[in-house]
Design goal:
Elements (H helix, E strand, L loop, with lengths): L5 H27 L7 H18 E2 L19 E3 L6 E5 L13 E2 L13 E3 L22 E3 L7 E2 L12 E3 L11 E2 L14 E3 L20
Parallel strand pairs: 3-5, 5-6, 6-8, 7-9, 8-10
Antiparallel strand pairs: 1-4, 2-3
């Protein structure tokens, strides 16, 4: 048999250490989300600032957003974060129509919501935003799966930019005469064809009379 040199023995020994150490640190990073420059709390602080900017523009007569203080935005009412990354995934500010003390939110909607890069769910239904338009920038929330601004006092033309939400599964822009006498209108229906994964669409009481192609209707992907 050929004798191994001491250098070769040392190489084998070091390799034997490197593999277990690499595996150990990999498991550690996976389990505890250790990563250079990464901190769930820091993410919450950054995305929390976006939510606080949104709060500043909102009229909140019953102080529903009173928990929106401090840096722990994942503990705020209506906010849901990813368990490990800390990214804000859901903002649910639907007004409870059965609770007389829960007054509707109103005011303006800040474009600071664009800083919620991972937002998947946005519900503003049953509030009263005083006939303002549905913000065009909603169409620039790339990961949105659920969007519900129904019965929330939005008026004017429905922005075609919503058609950019290619991951959307649920869209409700409808209204009822009882909760929201203000109706939206659309000038074109082609934007609806931009939803390859759409499973639910409610356009109740949306005025289609100005849509030049409403007879043909949108062309959904096969």
């Amino acid at each position: 048999m050929c004798a191994l040199k001491s250098g070769s023995l040392m190489d084998l020994y070091m390799r034997g250490l490197v593999v277990p150490l690499f595996y150990f640190f990999f498991i550690l990073a996976t389990k505890f989300d250790f990563c250079i420059g990464y901190s769930p709390k820091a993410l919450c602080r950054e995305e929390g600032e976006a939510l606080l900017s949104f709060k500043k523009g909102v009229h909140d007569p019953s102080n529903r957003l009173s928990s929106w203080v401090g840096e722990e935005c994942c503990n705020w009412v209506g906010v849901l974060c990813h368990n490990t990354t800390g990214h804000v995934l859901q903002v649910n500010l639907r007004s409870d129509v059965y609770d007389p003390t829960a007054l509707s939110l109103g005011g303006n909607i800040s474009s600071s919501l664009l800083d919620l890069k991972h937002l998947q769910y946005l519900d503003l239904s049953y509030n009263d935003f005083g006939s303002i338009n549905i913000p065009k920038f909603f169409g620039s929330l790339p990961n949105l799966r659920y969007l519900n601004p129904s019965n929330a006092g939005f008026g004017g033309v429905t922005p075609h930019q919503l058609g950019n939400l290619s991951k959307l599964h649920y869209l409700d822009i409808g209204s009822s005469d009882y909760y929201d006498p203000i109706s939206l209108n659309v000038e074109d229906l082609e934007w609806i064809s931009g939803f390859p994964f759409l499973e639910y669409l409610d356009m109740t009481n949306v005025n289609l009379s100005k849509a030049s192609n409403w007879l043909q209707g949108p062309r959904f992907p096969a």
